Amino acid sequence: MSKTSLEIREAWKTIILFLAVLTALSSIAYYAILKLNPTSIYVGGLMLSPALASFITLKIKKRPISSLPWNLKELKYLKRSYITPILYVSIAYVLIWMFGFGNLINTEVLLEWSNELGIDSSNQTLVIIVMIFLLLTVGVIKNLCSTLGEEIGWRGFLIFELRKVMSFKSVAIVSGIIWAVYHFPIIDLMNGRGENLLLHLSAFTIMIIGVSVILAYYTFKSNSLWPAALYHSVHNIYIQKICTPLTISNDKTTFWIDEYGLMIPIITTLFAVYFWRKADKENL
Predict the structure, then answer these.
(1) Residue 204's closest CA among 230, 176, 223, 225?
(2) pLDDT by residue for the chain (284 residues), tens digit each?
(3) CB 13: neighbour CB atoms within 10 A?
């Protein structure tokens, strides 16, 4: 057997080991989320499971944790990873508001924000500006602890192992599918097996695969896991803490809004096509 074949076989063994450890760890976390309280603590444990799985896999394979892509040489990839999710989420929600799939502005949320900030609720513009600024700075930094737990595993470890045996395109798609399936139980729990569960799972999967293309590009270009961790944090905060709360729901909203509706997957797919072609041109 040639050296190349040995390396490929070893890479597959490492990938399978990582997925087995991840399945065990995430199963424990999901059991705790379902059966124990408070669930928020165990959700944090779930988000740490990819990082822990990568550390355990490295330990078993006698490889140092320092071998992960911790360093970042070019800050431009951090800047782009910060801006990209803000751009596509903004486009998605502007379209949602324009087409009446949701309406602006949720005054109950503004009242909560004004109370939290200590700013008079009559000054809505100031409340919105200050809260969005704080969420996209302080909120993003705080959320990094959670997203880093996932990204150490996904972009710091898994995609580099997959790249040993797959093309860039295959890495993006396969890692996206794995990432999506990892979230399926929590989506099922959130939706309580409702009638729109298949829609939400499908929309989320399309979005995640699109995001995986973008994150694979930024990770391989920067050779660092930090752009992906920042991107993931901004994506979560901007959708979950800003755009969705500010939107007033109507009878169409559930089909279009958030990570489980159709609009963000459509826009992320368009962005993914751009990065897909860009990666192809740059021979990633």
Answers:
(1) 176
(2) 455 888 899 999 999 999 999 999 999 999 888 887 767 788 888 999 999 999 999 999 999 999 999 999 999 999 999 999 999 999 999 999 999 999 989 999 999 999 999 999 889 999 999 999 999 999 999 999 889 999 999 999 999 999 999 999 999 999 999 999 999 988 887 776 567 889 999 999 999 999 999 999 999 999 999 999 999 999 999 999 999 999 999 988 989 999 999 999 999 999 999 999 999 999 99
(3) 12
HSE-up of residue 280 (Cα within 13 Å, Cβ side): 8
Each residue of 171-192: b (16+ CB within 10 Å) or e?
bbbbbbebbbebbebbbeeebe
CA-CA distances (angstroms) from residue 118 to 58, 110, 130? 48, 12, 11
Beta strands in the chain (DSSP E): none
The Cα 93–Cα 247 span in angstroms is 9
The answer to whether the CB of 16 falls within 8 A of the CB of 53 is no
Residue 29 CB partners (closer than 8 Å, separation 6+): 42, 43, 45, 46, 49
Cβ(153)–Cβ(22) under 8 Å?
Answer: yes
Residue 81: φ, ψ to 5°: -70, -25
Phi, psi of 103 (to 5 degrees): -125, 155
Cα(126)–Cα(266) distance, rounded to whole angstroms? Answer: 32
Cβ contact 169:276 at 8 Å: yes
Domain positions in the chain are 72-281
How many CB atoms neighbour CB 200 within 10 A? 20
Take residue 41 and report the two structure tokens written for it.
């603590």
| Cis-peptide into 105, omega within 30 deg | yes
Rounded to an integer, what distance in angstroms lies between the CA atom of residue 122 and that of residue 119? 9
